[in-house]
Amino acid sequence: MKITDQPSVGPIAARTPTCFIIILLALAFIVLAAPGGQTPDDKHSADWPAYGGGPENTHYSALTQINRENVSRLQVAWSFDTQDSYPSSEMECNPIIVGGVLYATSPKSNVVALHAATGKLLWRFDPNSGQRIVGKMRNRGVTYWADGKDRRIFAAARTFLYALDADTGHLVATFGNQGRIDLRDDLGREERSAVTMTSPAIIYKDLLIMGSAMGETLPAAPGDIRAYDARTGKLRWSFHTIPHPGEFGYETWPKDAWKYSGAANSWAGLSLDVKRGLVFVPTGSAAYDFYGANRVGDNLFASSLLALNAETGERVWHFQSVRHDIWDRDLPAPPALVTVTHDDHQVDAVAQTTKSGYVFLFDRVSGTPLFPIEDRRFPRSDLAGEVTAATQPLPLKPPPFARQELTARMLTERTPEAHRAALERFKTVRSSGQFVPASRDGTIVFPGFDGGAEWGGSAFDPESGLLYVNANEMAWILRMVEQKLGTDQPTGRSIYRKECVTCHGLDMKGSPPEFPSLEGIAQRYEDTDLLLFLAQGSGRMPSFYRLGDEGLRAVIDFVAHGHDSPVKKQGASPFDMKYLSDGYNRFLDPDGYPAIQPPWGTLNAIDLNRGQIAWKIPLGEYPELASQGIAVTGSENYGGPVVTAGGLIFIAATSFDKKFRAFDKTTGKLLWETTLPAAGNATPSTYEVDGRQYVVIAAGGGKSKAPSGGSIVAFALPQ
Q1: What is the DSSP code (8-state) at residue 274?
Q2: How far is residue 78's CA from residue 99's CA, in Å, rounded to a whole number?
Q3: Beta pairing class for 659-664 and 670-675
Q4: Max CA distance (Å), the chain
Q5: What is the tens place of the pLDDT at every residue in 548-577?
Q6: Which residue in 69, 91, 205, 575 has a CA-CA distance of 20 to 30 Å to 672?
């Protein structure tokens, strides 16, 4: 056939041979089916194919079927009960949706595949193998990868990462060791401290790139960023966040710190510029969180934003948000990869939110700040051995989205009694704003250890340049307790005070939900369960196997039965801390409410083009206070927002009122709300199946002593 005989279907096709068209179609198919393949219009897809909506982690959807005009008509389309919630369990999953199938994790880290239009269960994978669940199993979602017909779901539970067939839920036996890899491997240390993943990995071609989560007291594993072959499970590259000799940043630590220091890990998840092959990594503080005498120096790459070559793991640029972090100021969420207007030019940028209530904005390629960053001096520590950094960096724009310093004028006025108690406590502690070192008297950390911004992350609207961030505005008290090192024979009590008091407190009441109370633990667990739990570790709690059987049993005797048994004395260790925190303590009034004036939680719209706050509203309330006329106070909130081209922001997050809400993205006006079966402490997803748009949220509760649940609830417009 001659070219002129081709049907007239357009100017290119009219002069293109059939065989060439076939080749073009074939190439397009290859691109679509390539490992981790991303089309240019993935962000406009009807799917929600990755944690945060896509590799850019902008939480944005171009779907418009649900919009400002009709969102008030939303109703439950389907609900799925995971049937595996338990007391104080949580559910932080951001479901992904690929090809009409929804993949999510449950309170016990089961992976479920559901028909996305009906909620019908297609398959379930249980990684627990009949093991008893002791403690929380936090998991924020799964990762999808495909190469032609080979389609896989990657999910973490305990210390393992599993590869599952996306169609059946069966283990992929050719991956790692019969379908899983041990996250404690490939870290270059003989000691195998507990390591897990709370946030899913990210895909670049055939690489599975991931961070990790571990204990925040010593000993702890190093927080290496690792890339594994998605087909075989073999390690392809590793980046040392605690640099080894000869590596960039090594001089910012003591010379042997790479052998014993730990954490500096990326537990919050990663973002990816697919086109440029850049992976962006937010890291947390080094262990021990609150006293760094054994890690004097700035401690690169702890509390930093890293840009790495996704193919090789090589550092491209970095920015350290907190030098020598002794405040647990982890970068708490994946950065959003955004495009903004700066100096009348379009700039591909990266926006990183922080616990301290600031947003840092950088040129994505060079790492150049788009707004000025100022180094400011802060007080030095008066704790023996501690050497604080002389300065800390703070951006001059945008302004902080959370209050920065707690003063006496800001204390609660809820009742005269509450105010009096708060003022008496406030007078005994230090409160001078950000980066005031911990003290033996107690130091106010405000915003608190949970932010400001937290792990839910932010949402970016490309139409307006607005970044939406929900924030906590809670004050916490950091108080240090001096330890007697190497003078007395250790006992169960002294081991508890050294190893456990930071999280669970001197009174064993903890700071629920992050750090549970140990009171009455003997009524909840057998000694054999506790022994296994302490030896293996779980989530943020490290393994204490190094204490040996005698040491572990002495701790159990003390905690569960009140007996203070002696333990054979051991030698000095680099893990010995002269000072330890007395626990994670919220600054609360006698009735358990925040000891400061509202708002206690907010939703913020930040104009990244201008570096300004566009609007701010309280987010959440306490139902019992609302019934007394004290409404719209805001509350603690965990889980992020989603923004859509339909003009909406969807967010649940609030811990006490169990509400799921939709706001006008331009004004912050509330347009719709509903009550969930349990608090939706997770980030929602939105997707389309068979022409119908859905918005789905995991309702797991369990935070701040709220009731637990295990539901996945999808909403849609009436048919």
Answers
A1: T
A2: 18
A3: antiparallel
A4: 96
A5: 667 777 888 888 888 888 887 666 677 788
A6: 91
Q: Cα(144)–Cα(102) distance, rounded to whole angstroms?
A: 11
Q: Which structure tokens are listed for 62?
A: 């171009």
Write down the residue that tokens 């108690």 correspond to: 421
Classify domain 51-479+588-716 at the CATH topology level. Methanol Dehydrogenase; Chain A (2.140.10)
Listed residue (517, 508, 514, 522) closest to 539, CA to CA: 514
Q: Cα–Cα–Cα angle for 323, 328, 329, nearest 5°?
A: 60
Give the three-class secondary structure for 506: coil
Contacts of 142 (CB under 8 A, 6+ apart): 51, 96, 103, 104, 105, 111, 153, 154, 155, 200
- Alpha-carbon distances of 281 from 7, 15, 90, 153, rounded to whole Å: 51, 47, 25, 22
Q: In what order do the strands lie in the sheet with 101-105?
A: 96-98, 101-105, 111-115, 121-125
What pLDDT score was predicted for residue 521? 83
How do 60-61 and 75-81 pair as beta strands? unpaired
Q: What's the token pair of residue 304?
A: 């930093």
pLDDT of residue 567: 83
Using DSSP bridges, classify how beta strands 642-644 and 60-61 pair: parallel, antiparallel or unpaired.
parallel
3-state secondary structure of 102: strand
Instruction: Give the 3-state secondary structure of 437-499.
Output: CCECCCEEECCECCECCCCCCCEEECCCCEEEEEEECCCEEEEEEECCCCCCCCEHHHHHHHH
The CA distance from 701 to 89, in Å, is 7
Which CATH number is 486-571 given?
1.10.760.10
Cα separation, 695 vs 247, in Å, equals: 46
User: Distance between the two ends of the chain, CA-based, in angstroms?
Assistant: 49
Q: In angstroms, how far is CA 492 from the centroid of its own chain?
A: 33
Judge contact between 678 and 658, C-beta under 8 A: yes
Strand ranges (DSSP E) for 382-429? 391-395
The 10 Å Cβ neighbour count of residue 325 is 28
**Is the whole-model pTM more than 0.85?**
yes
Which pLDDT belongs to residue 274? 98
Read off the tokens for 616.
């701010």
Token code pair at residue 406: 């707690």
> For residue 554, what is the enclosing H or E element?
helix 548-561
Question: Dihedrals φ, ψ of 411, to 5°?
Answer: -75, 155
Handedness of CA 25, 27, 31, 34 (dihedral sign): positive
DSSP symbol at 664: E
Helices (H) and strands (E) in the chain, counts: 9, 43
> What is the distance between the alpha carbons of residues 658 and 682, in angstroms, rounded to a whole number?
12
Q: How far is CA 403 from CA 453, 473, 631, in A?
A: 12, 7, 20
Each as own residue / partner, the long-range contacts of residues 483-490 (CB below 8 Å, 24 or more positions apart, any chain) are 483/576, 483/577, 483/578, 483/579, 483/580, 485/572, 485/576, 485/578, 486/572, 486/576, 489/566, 489/567, 489/569, 490/551, 490/554, 490/566, 490/567, 490/569, 490/570
Across the beta sheet with 225-229, what order do the strands follow?
Answer: 202-204, 207-210, 225-229, 235-239
Instruction: Report pLDDT digits (tens) over 328-379.
Output: 999 999 999 999 999 999 999 999 999 999 999 999 999 999 999 999 999 9
| Lookup: tokens for 396 | 């001059």
Closest alpha carbon to 651 in 457, 409, 430: 457
How high is the pLDDT of residue 533? 67
How far is the CA of 415 from the CAs of 50, 123, 421, 625, in angstroms? 46, 52, 10, 12
| Cα separation values, 241 from 135, 223, 248, 313, Å | 28, 6, 10, 11
